[in-house]
Amino acid sequence: MRNEHLSKLSVLAIVIVCDAVGCGTSTTTIPLGTNLEQQTDRLEHHVSEHRPASFAVAVEQIQSRHNQIHNEIQTKTHPALDHQLSELQDILGWLPEIAGDSDLRQADWNLVKQHSQQLANLYQELHQKVANGIRPEQSSFDKMETLNEGLRKLVPASDRLH
Amino acid sequence: MFETIFWGACLRIIQSTLQASPFIFTGLCVVGLLHRMMGQKHTRWLFGSNSVASLFQSWVIGMLLPGCSLGVIPICKQLRKSGIAIGTIFAFALSSPLFDPLSMLYGLTLSKPITIVAFAFCSLLVVTISGTIFDRLFPNTEVQLEEPPETPHGIKRLLAVLVVMARESVSGTAGLILIGLCGTGLLSMLLPAGILQRTMGHENPYSPLLMTAIAIPAYATPMTAMGQLGSMFQHGNSIGAAFILLIFGAGMNLGLIAWMVLNYGWKKSSIWMSLMLFVVVGLSYGIERPLYPKEIEPADHTHAFDSYCCPFQRDFIPSGGYPAEIWRRVRLETQTHEIAGAIFVGGLMGLGLLFKCLDRRWVIESWLNRSLQGSVHLSRRAWDIVVPGPVLAGVGLLSIVAFSIVGCFAYYPAPGETLDELNLAQTEALTAAMTGQREHALHWIPICEGWNRRLQVGTYLRRGRLSEYHRMKARVLGDKLEELEHMIENDDSPDEIRKHIANTSRAYGRLSRAYREEL
Known about the structure:
The complex is a heterodimer of chains A (162) and B (519). With 162 residues, chain A is mostly helical. Chain A has two domains: 39 residues, no CATH class; 104 residues. Helix content of chain A is 73%, strand content 0%. Chain A contains six helices and no strands. In chain A, helix 3 packs antiparallel against helix 4 and helix 4 packs antiparallel against helix 5. The N terminus of chain A is likely disordered. In chain B, helix 1 runs antiparallel to helix 7, helix 1 crosses helix 8 and helix 2 packs parallel to helix 4. The model of chain B has no long low-confidence stretch (mean pLDDT 87). The N and C termini of chain B lie far apart (52 Å). Chain B is globular and about 80 Å long. Chain B is mostly helical and 519 residues long. Chain B is built from 20 helices and no strands. Chain B folds into two domains: 343 residues, no CATH class; 105 residues, Four Helix Bundle (Hemerythrin (Met), subunit A), CATH 1.20.120. The interface between A and B is large, with 43 and 57 residues.
């Protein structure tokens, strides 16, 4: 009886080993046994080139990109804004995290989060309108300007302590 | 090369043993209560058997009781002795190691708590679907064993619980637990250090399958698995693979599989495993897209699975030799509750071996089960009532649950206290990074990350909520610490490291201010 159990266990162990080795070699992006130094070299998180370094830079970028977009819409009949709007949306998405890495207090940070969400929604609407060949209303730009102004006012507080 | 693999496996087995000790002790306590207090009849009533309701009952009990996949082995044995059907036993065996109050709280403070709730619901689906199909296929799996003689009430009944625990700790259970622990050694022998760092990507369709192969022999406590899940979410890894890690990594191990095969044979065990694999892998592919956090920018790597690989780099030879290095790491990493668990389990094993030696001359159970009638005068005061065993067992089980909830407050201290600990840890880490003490810095950074997580859970536990602002402050510090870790591992220039240390220190200052002044 004990021998029977032992033989069952050894077969089980072999199956598991084969399972682990087989799947390991067939599905990992790094095959077992490759040089570890090559694989572990430069472990880092990808940081997009257009990610601003600080809250002040982010607010400045939002404003300048907003001005560019506004300009393009006013001067061109069919403005190509996909790339610009996509990058602007990225910056707005990062803004709460960038503001989190600043000296902004809770109430101000909440305001940044709220403003960035509202701006992201407005730019999305604007994107849809431009894509459908509809000219965006001036009131949308006014709202964006007000929100951008709100963000600008928070810049001094973002680097208060240093 | 051989030395690295051998000593690496030794370290992994020792680490897993220490992590499992408190849960194995809890499992033995539950066995003692079920065996001597609850009895077979009431155990069957508590867990149910051979019905969908019993699967749900077992899942709920499993979720409440703190346990790990090694700690449930003695409980499964006891449930089988109590005449409970396989489906119900497996439902408990799978759900108990997945969550406990400590890990659940930890999970709820992760960036998307809904994912953890969804995982818990999916685990219920897994046990219900697999258990129902299995119980239909094999309806008569309840074992009928004779109820052991009742121990008279009083101190003897309490001693009887201790005797059961001691005997169980040196029974076949110890062998099964050892098989489970060997799984971690086996994995570390097969997987060189860091080999899994660039796997489990969200876009890789094979991630859940690869995770299945790794998670089954792996051993993870609920907290370890939850920490790994958190890291996977943070790095934008595959959600399906994360689910499999929780179900198979935390819920299963080689010892548990060995127990199934030994008690129910190859056929039933294979069918159960096939059912489980089918349901779990199917669900993992189903939840991959809906639960994936879209706001996360996926990293090209993860450290979540480093603990399943060999702990030593191939060419690494410690200056004081491998045994000294193992001792150093164990001393540094082992937590107080793990030491306490190991001492209790060791004590029980010593007692169990003593009983085994004594059995040749004197069996303690025959003395314990001897009736007190005649030797004790029967006149008792009105308040001296005999509490029935099942009531005591129920109170005992509830006490374990209550103790684990109280334990949450100890493990996750108040924010002020946690910040003091975090301050000490970050000073150690940053000073070491500044002075080029690579190993010391790499040791302290994960400790900082741990306190950073505990800060959030401790706050959530005491206030019932954690604002997005406070989560963000902790996330910023966590990211900075991880980046610093990479810079040290990548041997970046001292100037860059120094600059990043200043940023990390500022992030800590802001976090501290937010949690001390703005809660």
